[in-house]
Amino acid sequence: xxxxxxxxxxxxxxxxxxxxxxxxAAALPVLALPISLRAQGPTDPLASWNDGAAKQSIxxxxxAVTREGSEFVPGPQRVATFDNxxxxxxxxxxxxxLAFGLDRVKELAPMHPxxxxxxxxxxxxxxxxxxxxxxxERGMLELIMASHAGMTSEEFETIVKNWLAxxxxxxxxxxxxxxVYQPMVELMAYLRTNGFKTYIVSGGGIEFxxxxxxEVYGVPPEQVVGSSIKTKFQMRRxxxxxxxxxxxxxxxxxxxxxxxxxxxxxxRPIAAFGxxxxxxxxxxxxxxxxxxxxxxxxxxxxxEREYAYDRKSSFGRLDTALDAAPINHWAVASMKDDWKQIxxxxxxx
Length: 349
Description:
With 349 residues, the protein is of the alpha/beta class. It is built from 15 helices and seven strands. The chain has helices at 4-8, 18-26, 35-38, 53-66, 96-108, 121-126, 129-134, 136-148, 153-166, 182-193, 206-217, 256-264, 280-287, 320-328, 335-338, and strands at 79-82, 197-205, 224-236, 239-250, 271-274, 294-299, 331-334. The chain has a seven-stranded mixed β-sheet with strand order 4-3-2-1-5-6-7, sandwiched between helices. The two termini are 35 Å apart.
């Protein structure tokens, strides 16, 4: 399933003795050091982040909820949710799962000669993305059903893995699983080190993300929440399988995200990270509650290293949520200003 409109419609000094320096540092009371200083240097857990308000908001939040005091949060309640498309990996020039769906339609086309004259399939086969986009929610849904259903869950997982192993991003010429944002990978690891459980809560398909989420993000499949189609238990030659049907089960986007969080996780998050209007309700659900909370929006502002887009984008539109950020005291991380490095394969600037 696609996120947002696409589903419903588509980044010591050498003059000192190191031992003496470390010994001296060890003698200092740790809590007396400012958090911003404790996070710097070779052991900085957020090394790909520039010093600034966004990074500091993360450090201050983690310190507050993990240190004994009025804002302390017990370990089991430290739940953080992350959108995927545009928050954890690249979503331009189209959602990755949409690219997968288009390739699947082309692969299946020989078995469906009627698609040559039927929209939006004809547009896909002709490479007419304008017409594909104009097909709207109904057209996108039709493409997804045709390319994602009619097989077992295990068969679909194999297809997804094979596609990801061979597909390349049209601009960066890298596997899509290499187009994950290094600062966000560091952030997830930092939170887990501090007793958080990190969940992916995405408009993308739950069975599209689960086969690779643990390897790429360190998030196990049971901590992935996403959109889904209906499945049915069947016995095939005395082997139990789950068969994927051409029916929508759940759309985990916009208002569906808090519903999905409640159904799959059972706890309200205390931190949420997104990048688009599709994440607005998740950010609201997370932060408009008692206790210390953190909401953060990834703002795509770097056309040179990635892409620059927000209010008018067809994919990952950030408009209402951007206006809501200052009102709700959500941090906004600018890719251009707040990230030293976007992708792991990119040189640190």
